[in-house]
Design goal:
363 residues; alpha/beta; 12 strands; 20% strand
């Protein structure tokens, strides 16, 4: 699963990406310092794995991961090719969801591409370019459906949907602001719209704002805007996150404590991104490895087994499952079994987040 980090030039995208991945992406105080997208794979923080690691002392510790792509700064006119816009829009088209970084702090030493700080104007600049690109694509699709309807009148509901989405785009609203039923979701996914992709707004604030976020008017405006299109806002301070990324776990804990913060903005962003994509983790635990496996919410046991190996799915017999909380309360798998807390589940069982699973199979 890929998440694209987008935003205007100089809003902190590459700084945030560096902090996320320690990948050392080029970051500079001028537009378009990122031309080709940088890609980094990031571990999803999961305290449950830490608990299991203490219990089993495994040879391997393997968290779930998520992929972030640092996409160059978009500018007004990108949908018409301004600032290498067509290339950058194609990079966004390849990701599953978007992390939209917006600047919510004043600093005269950091150039703003429009000369002043206005997060809603910045959001509108990016969103309109995505909308214009979507309108162009959807217009072609509507023409194709109209032509096909001459021989197939059953396409009328699809045409009605596409025209409804086009009207929404023409009003300057994203396609994700609408509600869709299951059939409509399938139809709209055929069009590969940019504004249908789920979004998290990463509001880049100053260090001084971290302990008084409600006082940041820029942030509050972004939060109100996000509500209107059913998106989430995660406040982060990219500069602070870059400093935290250089620390080991103990130093990081002390640093956050000194700032009066329980969890880093990046940890919140990673978790929110994972959730945004409809992903959950089930866990496997033993002396060889403690591991989180990524699956889509609603996956049944055989499909989850297939994440480990195709043979597990092909020869699935049953899944032995205990909840994380029950295992921790019992202190060991043997005690959990003695108390009848380890369940045997079949092919129709839907895996829950945090299930600790042992698959039985035969091929």
């Amino acid at each position: 699963m890929k998440l694209g980090i987008v935003g205007l030039p100089n809003v902190g995208k590459s700084t945030l990406f560096n902090a996320l991945t320690n990948a050392g992406a080029q970051s500079a105080n001028y537009p378009f310092c990122t031309i080709e997208p940088n890609v980094g794979v990031v571990a999803v923080p999961d305290s449950r794995l830490d608990v299991l690691a203490k219990m089993y002392n495994p040879e391997l510790y393997t968290p779930a991961v998520i992929e972030f792509v640092d996409i160059a700064g978009l500018v007004k006119g990108a949908s018409r090719g301004e600032g290498l816009g067509n290339k950058f829009l194609s990079h966004i088209r390849e990701v599953d969801a978007i992390v939209h970084v917006v600047r919510c702090f004043e600093n005269n030493d950091i150039i703003h591409v429009d000369g002043s700080i206005d997060p809603l104007r910045d959001l509108e600049t990016i969103n309109l370019e995505l909308i214009f690109s979507d309108m162009e694509i959807l217009e072609r699709r509507i023409d194709n459906v109209k032509k096909a309807m001459k021989g197939d009148k059953t396409l009328a509901p699809k045409l009605e949907l596409y025209e409804r989405v086009m009207k929404t785009l023409e009003e300057g609203k994203s396609a994700r602001s609408l509600d869709y039923n299951e059939e409509e979701t399938a139809w709209i996914s055929e069009v590969a719209l940019l504004t249908i992709k789920p979004v998290i707004y990463a509001a880049n604030v100053s260090e001084s704002d971290l302990t008084s976020l409600s006082d940041n008017e820029y942030l509050q405006r972004v939060i109100e805007f996000a509500k209107s299109e059913k998106s989430e806002v995660i406040p982060v301070c990219a500069e602070i996150e870059a400093e935290i990324a250089e620390l080991d776990d103990e130093e990081k804990e002390m640093f956050l404590s000194d700032l009066g913060i329980e969890e880093s903005g990046l940890d919140k962003l990673i978790k929110a991104s994972y959730s945004l994509l409809g992903l959950i983790s089930y866990l496997t635990a033993g002396p060889k490895e403690v591991r989180a496996w990524t699956i889509t919410k609603g996956t049944k046991a055989p499909g989850a087994a297939g994440k480990i190996h195709s043979d597990f799915e092909r020869g699935f017999i049953r899944a032995e499952i205990v909840s994380f909380d029950d295992l921790v309360a019992c202190g060991s798998m043997n005690v959990a079994k003695e108390k009848g807390l380890v369940r045997s589940e079949g092919k129709e069982y839907v895996i829950n987040d945090g299930d600790i699973v042992l698959f039985r199979f035969n091929v």
